[in-house]
Amino acid sequence: MDLMTELKEIIGTERVSDSAAICQAYSYSCFLGMNWVRKPDVVVIAETPEQVSRILRLANHHKVPVTPRGAAGQGGHGGPLQGGILLDLTPMEKIILIDTENMKAVAEAGCSFFKLSQELFKHGLMLPTAEYGPGPNVAASAITPVNAFGKTRYGRNIDLVEGFEAVLPDGEIITVGSMAYADKDFGPFYRYITGPDLVGLFTQSNGAFGIVTKVAYRCLKRSPHWAFHSYYWPLSRIEEVKQTLLEGTALEMFDVHVNDKYKYAGLEYIKLLPPLPEDCHFIVYFTVNAETGEELSIKEKAVHDLAQKYGGKLLPGLAESFFAIWPTFFCPVSNPIASAISRVVLDVVKGNYMYIYDSLTYPTSWFPRVYQKLMEVGKKYDIWESPRFAVFDGFAMKSQVMCSQTWAFVDYNDEYWVGQIQKCRDEFREWFGERGGVFQSMLPPLTPDYTWTNQPGAHQLLRIIKRALDPNNILSPGSF
Amino acid sequence: MDLMTELKEIIGTERVSDSAAICQAYSYSCFLGMNWVRKPDVVVIAETPEQVSRILRLANHHKVPVTPRGAAGQGGHGGPLQGGILLDLTPMEKIILIDTENMKAVAEAGCSFFKLSQELFKHGLMLPTAEYGPGPNVAASAITPVNAFGKTRYGRNIDLVEGFEAVLPDGEIITVGSMAYADKDFGPFYRYITGPDLVGLFTQSNGAFGIVTKVAYRCLKRSPHWAFHSYYWPLSRIEEVKQTLLEGTALEMFDVHVNDKYKYAGLEYIKLLPPLPEDCHFIVYFTVNAETGEELSIKEKAVHDLAQKYGGKLLPGLAESFFAIWPTFFCPVSNPIASAISRVVLDVVKGNYMYIYDSLTYPTSWFPRVYQKLMEVGKKYDIWESPRFAVFDGFAMKSQVMCSQTWAFVDYNDEYWVGQIQKCRDEFREWFGERGGVFQSMLPPLTPDYTWTNQPGAHQLLRIIKRALDPNNILSPGSF
Amino acid sequence: MMDLSQAKLEDFRERLNLCLNCAACFYRGPIVPHNWRELPPPEWQAPSKKCPSFEYYRFRSHTALGRLTLAALVWRKDFPISDDLIKILYTCAGCNMCNEICQTFLPLHSILALREEVVERGIALPEPLPEMNAGIKEFHNIFGRKAKAKTPEKLPAEGEDMYFAGCYANYRLPKTATATIRVLKAAGINIASLGENERCCGFLARWSGNRAQAEKSARYNVEAMKKAGAKRVILSCAHGYHMWKNDYPRYVGQLPFEVIHVTELLAKLLEEGKIAFRHEINGKITYHDPCFLGRHGKVYEQPRKVLKSIPGLELVEMERCGKWSYCCGAGAKVILNCYPDFARAVAKERLREAQQAADTLVTACPVCFEHLKKTADQEAIRLKVRDLPTLAAEAMGIEW
Amino acid sequence: MMDLSQAKLEDFRERLNLCLNCAACFYRGPIVPHNWRELPPPEWQAPSKKCPSFEYYRFRSHTALGRLTLAALVWRKDFPISDDLIKILYTCAGCNMCNEICQTFLPLHSILALREEVVERGIALPEPLPEMNAGIKEFHNIFGRKAKAKTPEKLPAEGEDMYFAGCYANYRLPKTATATIRVLKAAGINIASLGENERCCGFLARWSGNRAQAEKSARYNVEAMKKAGAKRVILSCAHGYHMWKNDYPRYVGQLPFEVIHVTELLAKLLEEGKIAFRHEINGKITYHDPCFLGRHGKVYEQPRKVLKSIPGLELVEMERCGKWSYCCGAGAKVILNCYPDFARAVAKERLREAQQAADTLVTACPVCFEHLKKTADQEAIRLKVRDLPTLAAEAMGIEW
């Protein structure tokens, strides 16, 4: 029997397609403007781990690559690096469990953070993620090495993952971490069951070791009191900004975020925001939460004292008004103001934003040196200021780690500017990679060699495990 | 050449011994009273990863088991499960790095938490561990599946581990997690480098996948303000105790600890403590910390409000005075009061404490049912109350997980009572394991089958990886 | 800023490949406020399931995001307009949910522009669109009926208030027209109509990609209304309403008369005290927003106002309502005619949703009404399906 | 509660295998308070390196914990007293650090009890202990010298204040004895001594496990002092002091006289104004606590008081001092004699530690003094090593 016939036998005729047009829609995201297009040969929409298992057995038999994909490009799977089978997991989106008492959530791989969060909110819980978009889903944010930002005090989403159900390359359905106990009375209660932690093997793996079909998260209590405050500094005060970030993180504030003024280019342009003060270059936002108003006041005072200590000036209202529209700014949902801004930006630059670096990870203490290098190369390639604005957007994370993105506004069809960005990126990468910087990208071929040359031992270990688990190299071939 | 000659060539004659007496001192801890004695054939004291590497190559050549060991029994390595080479890592105890700004610490495997913590304190940092004893060392607490308790808000010690240097079974020295970047300018700055997390593979592994030679921890700021409060409940109010534990954890208090009154048997006996109130059965301790006195007051109020809400009565001074002596209570260092207590306990029971369960891990919401079962079997085997006192000692951890220990006081040489404890343990284990409970023990052969039957997929995965990395099964044979 | 609603495919050149793949147009969301202070405000709280073709076909291609991607490739000449592509293109229900969400890219407009490209290139449309378009051209109705349009009550051919019944009311649902006319007359409106001279509004032509025919229909109808002295054109059909109100001005310039849907007019008459509901209609009733009246036309409040004014009637909302209302399955009539299984599946889902909330579903568009009613009957779903004009008539004690 | 210090091996039956393997007795710690409120109080803050035999041999067996484990096995008859075991047993420096830390198990007592078991079973001791024990028995000094003890200054044979010089001062360090005697005389004390009739205190016999000889020595010396009319026995040697003060009473019952170390007496005389230091001694001086005066004898303050009273002298502490002081390497004279390399290594470490703090090291025990001084010379360590009595004499302007 040929592959298509066998697939249809497993899945049913309606959910398997080798239509060129359908496959094309699953090609590697064209959004990045990388001129990188790989499309699958077949798309299969799976609904159960058992189907995934049978597909993997079949793929092994035919030695065909299999790539899983959730709904969204950002924080979702990027599509195949080689043809083969594209496994669309979007129908696997059930919420399996919300355990209010033990503060756990389990959902199928394709469930979006939005969906899960909406449900958690009703139970007084939350996930401290920045991935509240409709698309990023609970598995993808855990297994792709990109973008799954959480909140300062708690780290990234993968810091909250406690267990997986996954289908190994040979089709075996296994459970690791807390999910190993999901079918027992105690439920999926703890990541660190007896023995080594295997959850980590699947995180940031691009699915190379198995197809994740369920994810267990630990949740937090949704605090009743919140406050947001932002402060600004001139460019010359970058060391003070650094200290503010370091200390805000050390104080375990809920969230500490930093960006430069270029993030507001669009807002200023259409006069939605008053112009930023002359001497404003960096803006640091603090989010604090509390159980009582009294506790909140004290935390607000701590924020204010910290900013004061390092000479930050209050930018009243910015955090509130900006965050009110931010989530919709470039992810233009039903919010007319936000959409208008996006469209203005589009009109001005005849394009949209394009990541130069997505994402860079480095010690927070290096923020000044990294920023200055970004500025140096950005200026050299003329993408630093208007109208391309190399926007700096930094997530200060627990463990004194900065995860930052930088993007510029360009027309993807304009080869000159796309080329400038690529040259800028290459030059920066060399400097950054030599110092031990970490690149995160959805697409391993686009990840520079530093990714592995900086960690040859880990790479070697991964390849040994990969060979042991996936001898036919059917899952995410090209990743390791 | 024979093994001894080759070992001496690597290490030098003075640090290799096959003396029966020396080997005997490295036999599996006699402390547990398990009548389990396995002793190594050779003891080798290694000082560098390179030596470890050469020893592992040699061991592979001779197909001889290798077991690493730190200084302490509790939270340290337990000794070999089979003979072979015992690798004593105690000389590898250097503190490699304390990065105050980025809040990181790196130490060699054998470095004790005490030593590291003393140094961290000087830098305004701390590790939220309960492992401040002299013996438990930074690697052992990460790689043994036992006892490495942290503090409620932060979880266990392994939640703070960010990287390892390890020697793989084939002798390759690799670095994973943040340690992969230790030799770069950025230093060991982040656990989640690009790609899957391999740190977890070594945690709780009993060293089966490699010998850990360096560990990187993330640290916390050492708060200037601390408070300790304890409250008590009668036995009939166990549900309220549960709620208090759950909510205290959800509120992210620094530490929430629970035990029953039997923990104070010795203190009461020598009248160091006034008798506990008649209706006191459970005692919950809270530790809170803060940056300012004002913030501390608010947190203290939150503690008080929580205890009030569930009918807990204040036990003034207990937390303070108990914690002042606790660390020395059964680990009798230079503190005459504490030592006196220990000795009284010894005189009364003609023995010492012996773990019945070390440790049990289960959802905090199950605390009442678990405690009641412990009580049922404890009473059945007559070890519940005086003079054996099945003491319950529970660490409420983030993620709503209870890690508890139970011990009784017996003379290890008294076969009858040791037998009672073993029967009690077996009966409880059956009930507990069927519900998905997790057993943690230093000694895999003593871990019941539930450990693996509850997680067959994970076990299978571990064995595949084990075979790939350690084909001659030289590291901790018997673990997987 | 350019009005994208008037754009052709090439106008999307600079935008087509800029879609960020955020998936808001079809997946679960859109998004919640960043601050966790509260649940998303209702206007942000899109339902979980919102794109009918994604829910039915499940392929990423069958979403606004997928179609936008494909449109980009077609424009770049990187992809042919194949049969596959045609099917993907015409299984869009046109419900406007994606445009509601993604106001930056307005993906539905790209889809429509691509349909025009298909027709321009002379590529065969899915059955039975070619036949239906031919019917519009030849017989001026979408059903291909040779008989001329026939308004059930004899009305003057000229007047200020011109009733435009549309193909459904003219050919298939005369009761809707009758009830509408009698209610308006009772309100003292001198209602007139083009009668036999009324021609198909051209909606289906437009949604087939047949812009030429759509423009032709527009020119004819607007000219006829002008001649009849119209100050106000009153529509029963939501599709016609959208066509008259939003597309005709693009084709023929600003209209010299007002375009109003019957529900808007009834609400106005109630407000002015010109009509009143004195007869109780008991029961739990839920209102289904027709996509072309609601999201396309922004008429949400007036039909609800009318219903709430009926004594005895308890108006309840379905989970998805107002701007987040779900398509009835008719899908701009394209789905209804080309992909009846898909159309039925969507209608079933909508009917079941209504069943959760009420015992009667009311809608305000003959197309939605007929499709939902027929499906309820076929599938034996125990739910009354009504159209708003007849309900109004009943409440006023008017026979129809 | 039983006094474990009097216990024999069998008295540890119930305790030997109860060691919790906490490693506090030799590893880094002991422990910090649970509350993180402050650094451990000084009395809890043991130094990082504290067990000389662990630091030198590095095997777990060569710690109190290891020796306790082995003792348990020997008692259970699960392990023979092999040559290996003997070596492990006699490489304990006897410095009492482990007892200081582990007051529950007092591991050093188990070790000593096991040494007695060795002797009882007639198993050969490490060289040169058999010869030295024979010397004690035959010639009444540890050096095996046939010559009788000889106090450098002629003193009365009877008196209330009896000076007991000990083997070191008698045979090797007459200056220490001379200085001590002259200083005490200057204070107006009518000092007397047993002279040729003074016999070895039996310390080395006791620490060899030779309890019979130790008891014999005790009986002789106590009897002689009684006869001499002693009200106070004044000792120069810390080992002798420990033997007289702590072991003799166990062997012969309560003593009818006071036992006092010369540093204690000097401190008392200073306080009473009976002596005074008028001659400056300039320099940074650090005090090394002899294990048997300090941890075994709890005499920490008096020698420091004496030193601080000397004009010009700046007393500084080493990192490890007082109860956390480190062994000089002489190791209850057992190490010094049986394992000279080990003894030298420890002395070197201690000297280097002193060098970090000061330019002169002062100690108050002839054994420590000689071993440290000799090692400093051999290893060319630039540090002056002094003993306290001669320093006191110098400060008083007394020649010795």
SSE layout and pairing:
The complex is a heterotetramer, with two copies of chain A (480 residues) and two copies of chain C (400 residues).
Chain A: H1 3-11, E1 16-17, H2 20-24, E2 42-45, H3 49-62, E3 66-69, E4 85-88, E5 95-99, E6 104-108, H4 113-122, E7 125-126, H5 140-143, E8 161-167, E9 173-177, H6 199-202, E10 211-218, E11 220-221, E12 225-233, H7 238-250, E13 255-260, H8 265-269, E14 282-290, H9 293-309, E15 313-314, H10 318-325, H11 336-349, E16 352-363, H12 367-380, E17 391-397, E18 401-410, H13 415-434, E19 438-439, H14 450-453, H15 456-469
Parallel strand pairs in A: 2-4, 3-4
Antiparallel strand pairs in A: 1-2, 5-6, 6-10, 7-11, 8-9, 8-10, 12-14, 12-15, 13-14, 13-17, 16-18, 16-19, 17-18
Helix pairs in contact in A: 1-3, 12-13
Chain C: H1 52-57, H2 64-75, H3 83-90, H4 97-101, H5 107-120, H6 129-139, E1 161-164, H7 166-172, H8 174-186, E2 191-193, H9 203-208, H10 211-227, E3 232-235, H11 238-252, E4 258-261, H12 262-271, E5 283-288, H13 301-308, E6 313-316, H14 334-338, H15 340-357, E7 360-363, H16 366-378, E8 384-387, H17 388-396
Helix pairs in contact in C: 2-5, 7-8, 8-17, 10-11, 12-13, 15-16
